[in-house]
Amino acid sequence: MYSFNNDYSEGAHPKILEAMTRTNLVQNGGYGLDEHCTRAREIIRQETGSKDADVHFIVGGTQTNLITIATALRPWQAVICVAQGHINVHETGAIEATGHKVLAMPGKEGKLTPDEIIQAFEYHTDEHMVQPKMVYISNSTEIGTQYSKAELEALHRLCREKELYLFLDGARLGSALTSTVNDLSVKDIAALTDVFYIGGTKAGALFGEALVITHPDLKPDFRFMMKQRGALLAKGWLLGIQFEELFTDGLYYELASHANDMADILREGIRNMGYTFFSPSFTNQLFPIFPESVINTLQKEFIFSIQEKEEDRSVIRLVTSWATRQEECEHFLSVLKTCSM
Amino acid sequence: MYSFNNDYSEGAHPKILEAMTRTNLVQNGGYGLDEHCTRAREIIRQETGSKDADVHFIVGGTQTNLITIATALRPWQAVICVAQGHINVHETGAIEATGHKVLAMPGKEGKLTPDEIIQAFEYHTDEHMVQPKMVYISNSTEIGTQYSKAELEALHRLCREKELYLFLDGARLGSALTSTVNDLSVKDIAALTDVFYIGGTKAGALFGEALVITHPDLKPDFRFMMKQRGALLAKGWLLGIQFEELFTDGLYYELASHANDMADILREGIRNMGYTFFSPSFTNQLFPIFPESVINTLQKEFIFSIQEKEEDRSVIRLVTSWATRQEECEHFLSVLKTCSM
Amino acid sequence: MYSFNNDYSEGAHPKILEAMTRTNLVQNGGYGLDEHCTRAREIIRQETGSKDADVHFIVGGTQTNLITIATALRPWQAVICVAQGHINVHETGAIEATGHKVLAMPGKEGKLTPDEIIQAFEYHTDEHMVQPKMVYISNSTEIGTQYSKAELEALHRLCREKELYLFLDGARLGSALTSTVNDLSVKDIAALTDVFYIGGTKAGALFGEALVITHPDLKPDFRFMMKQRGALLAKGWLLGIQFEELFTDGLYYELASHANDMADILREGIRNMGYTFFSPSFTNQLFPIFPESVINTLQKEFIFSIQEKEEDRSVIRLVTSWATRQEECEHFLSVLKTCSM
Amino acid sequence: MYSFNNDYSEGAHPKILEAMTRTNLVQNGGYGLDEHCTRAREIIRQETGSKDADVHFIVGGTQTNLITIATALRPWQAVICVAQGHINVHETGAIEATGHKVLAMPGKEGKLTPDEIIQAFEYHTDEHMVQPKMVYISNSTEIGTQYSKAELEALHRLCREKELYLFLDGARLGSALTSTVNDLSVKDIAALTDVFYIGGTKAGALFGEALVITHPDLKPDFRFMMKQRGALLAKGWLLGIQFEELFTDGLYYELASHANDMADILREGIRNMGYTFFSPSFTNQLFPIFPESVINTLQKEFIFSIQEKEEDRSVIRLVTSWATRQEECEHFLSVLKTCSM
Question: What is the DSSP code string of A197-232?
Fold first, then answer.
C-alpha cells in the first residue's frame, strides 16, 4: 500500500537528519535562544524581506494558529475565515478553547473574498455581538487552491481599512509559491499580511512552522504566550537547524516543487482520463471525483481519504509531498486506467 | 414615542414590587439559601411536574446560557443550535469565551430540525473535530416561532439516542406556552428536555430566570459554577420572591397571555392591511415587512428595531410584553393605516 | 435570631424601592443606555472628581472583579493581591477561570505593602513565569482594615513606576470612607487608582456596583466584555436609579456611617469587656476573639460566621450594615456580658 | 564554557537518531496512530505493569501538564501542589490559562505532605471557593528530592480517601528511579498514582513525554484534548520510535544512572570541600550554596543558573544529564578547589 493520504507520512529530508546528527552532542541554550535559531531567524528575515520581523519556531500548525490568534485578539474579538478553514473544522475547537469565536463564511473555491469580510464586519454592529478583528486565510487553501497577488492585495487593503489583522496560515505555503499558476513571492506574502507562517512539517522538516510577525502590535511578549501554551520546545535548536537547512540553497522550494510536480503528473493523468475535480488545484492536494467502483479498486493499493461522499461517487483527496515517488504516481494512474476501461 | 423595541422596557408587575417592599427589612440568608428561594423552587418543581429537579435562579439569560452550557460540556465538546440562536449571535461570544464551539445550522423558521442535528453529529467524526454533546433550542424562538409537541418529542428522542443533552432557552417560554397555536405544557417541556429555563425578565419580573435541571449529570456542583461566573446574587431572595409571585395564581401565564393578546391585535391588523411577515409568529415578537416609507412614518411615533434591511423594504421587529398598552397597539395600526392610503 | 452574618441580609434603603416603584411603568432603553444610568454616571463623575472617567454599573462584585481584571490583562499576565483577597479565596476561582493567575502575597493586616509588590514583581523575571500587570486591593479590606492616604499614595507611585494597573475593590468603600480613622476622600481614591468601584450591594442598594475607570487603556470596548460575561442587565436602569438615590443628598455616606456607628458600639463594648480582636478594624466588619463557650452562648441568639477556628477559642466575624438596629447591638453586648461573668 | 545549566542541552542518545534515520522514508500514519507508537505503548504498559493503561506521547512537559490537568478537572476544580511546583511557577500560568486555580502549599524539601493536602482540602468548604480535586507532585522534585515508597503510599491512600486524583510529573522520573536512595519501581509509580508520565526530553530523547493514565475517569476522549491544545504531533511516530529505543534493553535507566553518577561525583566533591546544599538531593539536580566570589570564578568556565540570591552567597543549580562528561565534572571540582584555597 502506498499512501497519498497526506504530506506528513515520511520523516525529513536527509540533509535535516544529517544536520541533527552532526550537531547532536553540541551543547545549546534551551527554548529557542540558541545560535541555530538566531541564524535561522536571520535567514528568514532576509528571505521574506522583512528585516524587522519577529520570527518564532513552533512545533505544529494548530499550536501556531491558536497562539497567534489568541495573542492578537482581545477576549470579545473574533476571527473571520472560510467554512473549510483549518481552524474552523480540523482543530477540535482550538480557537474557541482560547475564548474566541470563529466567524465562518462560505468562501469561493476555498478562498475568502473581500465581500465576505465586509459582510461579516458589517453584520457585527455593537456590543451584543463579537467584534471581528482578524482575518485568517490559508495559502494554499484547504482544498488546494491559492491566492493570486491581486487577491491578496485586495484582502490586504481591506484589512488595513477595517483595522483587521491579516493572518496567513502557510502550512502548505511552499506548494502555493512553487505552483505553476503562482504569481506571489514570499516577500509579497510578508508585505501583504500582518503575520504568516512558513510550514516545515509538510515540506521536508520533521516538524516545525516558522512564524513571521510583521505587525508591531502582535510582537510584544509573544514568547510568554508560547510558553504558556506549551510551545517553547526545550531543545529549540532542533527547529532552528531544520529551517537553516530548508532555507539554504533553496531546498525548501526544491522540495515543494517536487511535491507539485508529482501532483501535476497525477492531475494531468486523471484529467486525461476524463475525470473532473472538486476544486481547481495546482498545488500538492488534488480532489478528483471518482465513482465508488473506481475508489474501491484504488483503495486496494493506495491510501487516501474521502473528502465528500455522494450517492454513487465521491470526492477523494490525494496529497503529494517532497518524498512522493514518481513511479507510485505513475502506478496510480495505471491502476486508474484499468478501472476506466 | 412608544416602544415596541423589546419586552423589557418596563419594570415589574406591581405585585412583585409590593412583595419586595413588604419583605424589605426582613433578614435573609445570602446567595439563594433563603426561604423565598426554597419556596419558589418547590412551586416550580410542582408546576413543572419534576419533583427531583434542581432549580436555580439567575439574574439574566446570557449568564444562564453560558453557565449551563459550560457546566454540561467537557472542554472539547460543542453545542448545536440554529444560526439565529441567541447564543450564536447576540451574546458577544459568551459560549466561546467558556471555551466551546457553537455549531450553527440553518434551521427552519428559526427552529432546529432533527435532520440538522444528525447532519452536525455525523459530520464530526473524530478527535480532529469538536464533539457535539448538547443541543440548544429556544422556545419561543428568536424569530417568534415555537416548537410543537411533536417537534419537541422528535428532538428529545434523537438527543436520547445520540446522547446529546437537550437544553431549552425559555427566555420567552411564557409567550410560547400561551400562544394560540401552542400544544405544549410546561410539564411537557420539563419531561422532554434535560435542562430548561423559565424566563422572568421578559415576563413581568424585574429580572431573573429559573433554571430547571432534570438530567442528573448536570446537577452536581452547579452552584460552584454559578459563583465562579458571578451569578450567585448576594440578595438571592429577590429572585425567589419574584418567582413566588409569578407562579402564584397563574400570574406568569396571565402576563404572557396579555403580551400575546397585544401581539395578536398587531398581527391581525397588519395582515389585514395586506402586509406579510418574515416568520409565522403567534408569540409576542412579530416580524412584519414594510416599505422604507412606511417605516419612516412609524419611526416618528414608535421605537422598534430593524431586523433585516433590504433594498427598498425591511423586516422590522415589534415586541409586546405584559406591560404593553392596548391603545398603543391600536394607535400603531391607525398610523400604519395612514401610510397605506 | 438576629444576624450579624453579613451586610447584605436586608433589601434596600426605602428611598430606592420608592424610586423603583415610582418609575416602574416608564419605558426605558435596555442595557444601561437610559436616562437614569446617564444621570447616575454624571453624578458619580462629579462625586469622584474624574470628569473623563467611564462609569459602568454591574450587578455584583465577583462579576465586576472578573470583568475588570480580564479586560485589563493579556493572557499571560497576572494580578497581585493579598492572600485573603476576595478574588484569591472567595470567588471560586473566578479570575483563574478567565485564564489569569492570582499572585497572593501575605499582606500586613490585610493590606498589600509596596515591598510585597516589588517582591512579586521582581520574582517574575522572564517568559517562563507569568507577568504581573495589575495590583488588586480592597478598601476596606477583607478583615476590616483600611488604607491610609499615605499608603495608597505609595502603592499608586509604585504601580506607576512599574507600569502596573492599580484596581481597588470598593465593595465596602463607604464603610472605609466614613470610618473614624479614614483620611481618604472618594476623589483621592479616583486619583490614586486606575479603576475602582463603589459598592452598592453592601451599602443600601438592592444590588449593584459602580465601576469607575480612569485609566484610558482600560476603557475601550468595556461593554463588549460586560455583555460577554452576562453583566449587561436588560433592565439596566434599575442600577442607575439606585446610584442616583445613593448619591443624592449624601445618602451613601449616611448609610455607611450608620453601619460604622453600629460597629463602633459593638467594638467598644467588646473591648471594654477585655476581649481582643484579630485585626484593628474601624469599619463595619469586626473580628473579635472569643472562647468557645462564649461563642456557643452567642449563637443561641445571633447569626455570625466563624473566621478562624483555634483550639479553644475562635475568631468570629460580626458585620453591621445600613440596616443594623442599635438595640440589637446593645442586646449582643448584654448577652456577651452574661458570658463574661 | 561547559554547561551544567540543564538536562536538555544536547540532542538525543545516538541510538534514537539512528532509529529515526533508519526509518526515515518509511510511510507512517499520522498523529500517533502508527506501529511505532502502538509498540511503544505496549512496551510501556508492560514496563509499568499496567496493562489497561492508556498511554499517550506528547512533545513537552508543559503541554502534558496542562492537558492532563484540564482534562481531569471540571471548571470549578483546583489542583494542589507545592509552591515550587513546576506548574505553579515555571509554566507562565499554563494551568490558570485552562481556567483552573493552582493551590500552592509550602511543601517540605520540595515534597507535598499529607497534612498539607488535608489542610488545603479542609480549607475549601463550599461553593464560594474552588474545589480541590487533583494533587500534583513531581518525582524527582523541582529541587532534586524524591518521594520514598512510604511517602507515595501515604499520598495515594489520602487521595483515594478524599477522592482526589493523584498526578505525578515524571519529567525527571528516570533520575529519581535510579538514585541511590530510591525504593520505588516504575510499577509502584503506576500503582500508586492515577496518571503519571515518563519524561523523555531530559532523559536522552530529542523530546517527548509518555503519559500513562491508569484511572478510568481520565481516559475518555483524551486525544480530543490533545488535538485541541496542539499536542497531536503530525509525525507522531517520532515519539513512538524514541520510547521504543529508550525502553529496549534498559537504555532509559542506563542513561538516568549516568546522570546520577555524574551528580554523585559533583555532590561528593563539593561536600568534601565543606560546602552545604539547599536541599538533600541524590538525583541529577544539585543545589550547592557558594559565596559570590566562588560563583564568579566558576562562571568563567561553566554555565549554570542561580536559584536564590542572598546577601553574599547564593544557591546555584547544577544539572547533569545522560550526556554529561565525567571529565567536565572533575574539572568543575578542580576549579572549585582553586577557589577554596
Answer: EEE-TTTTSSS-EEEEE-SGGG-TTHHHHHHHTT-S
Q: Tens digits of per-residue pLDDT, D314-336?
A: 999 999 999 999 999 999 999 99
Evaluated on CA atoms B286, B292, B296, B297, the torsion sign reads negative
C101 touches chain D (CB under 8 A): yes
Place of cell 494580578: C79
- Amino acid present at C32: G
Phi and psi torsions of D276, nearest 5° = -110, 170
Q: How confident is the model at residue C339 (pLDDT cuts 50, 70, 90)?
A: confident
Show residues of chain D in contact with C127, CB under 8 Å.
92
Task: Give the bridge partners for B319, in sequence order.
Answer: B285
Tell me the residues of chain A between 25 and 44 that have a Cβ less than 8 Å away from chain D. Answer: 25-30
Within 13 Å, how many C-alpha atoms sit on residue B93's CB side?
A: 28
Query: D75: which chain C residues are within 8 Å (Cβ-Cβ)?
Result: 97
Report DSSP state, residue C277: B
Q: Tens digits of per-residue pLDDT, A290-325?
A: 999 999 999 999 999 999 888 889 999 999 999 999
All residues of chain D having their beta carbon less than 8 Å from the beta carbon of residue C76 are: 92-93, 97
Task: Look at C8 and B234 and tell me if their CB atoms are within 8 Å.
Answer: yes
In 10 A of CB A142, how many CB atoms? 24
Q: Does B224 touch chain D (CB under 8 A)?
A: yes
State how far the Cα of A321 lies from the Cα of A9, in Å rounded to an integer. 9
d(CA C47, CA C44): 5
> What span, in angstroms and rounded, lies between the C-alpha atoms of A79 and B77?
20
Domains of chain C: 2-7+251-340 (3.90.1150.10), 14-246 (3.40.640.10)
Reading the block at residue D84, the C-alpha cell is: 515550587
Q: Which of D76, D92, D102 lies closest to C92 in CB terms?
A: D76
Q: Cβ–Cβ of D93/C78 closer than 8 Å?
A: yes
According to DSSP, residue D236 is labeled: T
Q: Report CB contact under 8 Å: B127, D99.
A: no
pLDDT truncated to tens, each residue of chain B (341 aa)?
Answer: 999 999 999 999 999 999 999 999 999 999 999 999 999 999 999 999 999 999 999 999 999 999 999 999 999 999 999 999 999 999 999 999 999 999 999 999 999 999 999 999 999 999 999 999 999 999 999 999 999 999 999 999 999 999 999 999 999 999 999 999 999 999 999 999 999 999 999 999 999 999 999 999 999 999 999 999 999 999 999 999 999 999 999 999 999 999 999 999 999 999 999 999 999 999 999 999 999 999 999 999 999 999 988 888 999 999 999 999 999 999 999 999 998 66
Q: If residue D168 lies in a helix (H) or strand (E), which one and from where to where?
A: strand D165-169
pLDDT band at A194 (very low <50, low <70, confident <90, very high): very high
| Residue C89: partners with Cβ closer than 8 Å, 6 or more residues away | C83, C142, D129
Is B227 an 8 Å CB contact of chain C? yes
